[in-house]
Design brief:
Strand order of the largest sheet: 1-2-3
Radius of gyration: 23 Å
Order of helices and strands: HHEHHHHHHEEHHHHHHHH
Shape: globular
Structural class: mainly alpha
Largest sheet: 3 strands, antiparallel
């Protein structure tokens, strides 16, 4: 057994309780909040705020939530919450008594959440199984996402972070990895990024230089995608569907993108978001993207966001060329 796994649990009783409550099959992986984060004051503040928000929202339904883990797993509260906030009518039973019925109900509810929030499967930080098994980390991510979408002015405490441990049952025993995960926005990083961002300066204080920078980026892009017979003339519109961005990354990184992995001629916003999210994942995996990006901004033609992404590629590969 990995010694780091034992170090997470300062008391033997905690380890025994964990092993009793969490059966991890071989090949399975689970991510959990470390016991050391359980008494985090900011985490407690967030939990209390979410509970109060749910109870206030569902007051007319006479629903009272006392525990996020114990009261949300069966889908009843989530069902009422979505119907109340989003005026949605879900084709599920109000009460699901068996685990099979609860699983079916949660599947419908979480599919509706992903559709409302326009999230790809790869962006989801929860699953039917994790909610059903009362996983606090997944439940928090789900509720925060719902609240941000339907009640963006809800005063959630910023920078709520927890220490997590990912446990994988391999053929050689339990393998672990520790990390720090943010549940609400890391505003300090976002503010620092905004403060030091050269593109904020460019757009606000030197708009006269904007066309010159765009011209440089277009020359760089066309130098590479031109090999595919493509010509980019407008940064704002031609990167919105993610196709040019994916092909550019493929050219620069030297690999072939399987046409089955993305939409070459996207016909909807969902397909465009899929392409952009794939491109952002590739940039992150390649170590080229070290800041948060909202894929919807690119799809919506946000010039500043698109130029930031292009600069990540330009700064690496133009240096190599020179």
């Amino acid at each position: 057994m990995d010694p780091d796994f034992l170090n997470v649990f300062t008391q033997p009783a905690a380890l025994n309780q964990f092993l009793a409550e969490n059966v991890i099959a071989q090949g399975e992986k689970k991510k959990l909040i470390k016991p050391t984060s359980s008494n985090n004051p900011k985490l407690e503040e967030l939990k209390l705020l979410l509970i109060d928000w749910i109870n206030t929202t569902l007051k007319e339904e006479h629903i009272v939530v006392k525990s996020l883990e114990e009261d949300l797993y069966d889908g009843l509260v989530l069902h009422h919450l979505l119907e109340k906030l989003g005026s949605l009518k879900l084709d599920v039973d109000k009460i699901a008594l068996t685990e099979k019925k609860q699983h079916q109900k949660l599947s419908v509810i979480l599919e509706a959440v992903a559709k409302c929030l326009q999230l790809e499967e790869s962006q989801l930080k929860w699953s039917v199984e994790s909610i059903l098994t009362k996983d606090l980390l997944s439940t928090l991510h789900l509720l925060v996402a719902i609240a941000k979408h339907f009640r963006p002015n809800l005063p959630m405490p910023p920078n709520v972070q927890v220490e997590t441990i990912t446990i994988e049952n391999t053929s050689r025993g339990l393998k672990t990895a520790s990390a720090v995960e943010y549940i609400t926005e890391n505003k300090e990083n976002l503010e620092a990024q905004s403060k030091d961002d050269a593109f904020d300066e460019l757009f606000s204080r030197a708009p006269d230089k904007l066309d010159a920078v765009k011209k440089v980026f277009l020359q760089f892009v066309n130098q590479h995608v031109g090999k595919l017979g493509l010509n980019v003339k407008d940064i704002e519109s031609q990167f919105a569907d993610g196709v040019i961005l994916l092909l550019l990354i493929g050219q620069l990184e030297g690999y072939f993108l399987n046409l089955r992995d993305f939409f070459l001629t996207p016909a909807s916003t969902t397909e465009m978001l899929h392409n952009v999210n794939l491109a952002l994942d590739l940039l992150t995996d390649g170590g080229l993207l070290n800041f948060s990006v909202n894929s919807e901004d690119i799809v919506n033609g946000d010039m500043k966001t698109t130029m930031r992404i292009l600069y990540c590629l330009y700064s690496k590969y133009k240096a190599k060329e020179t």
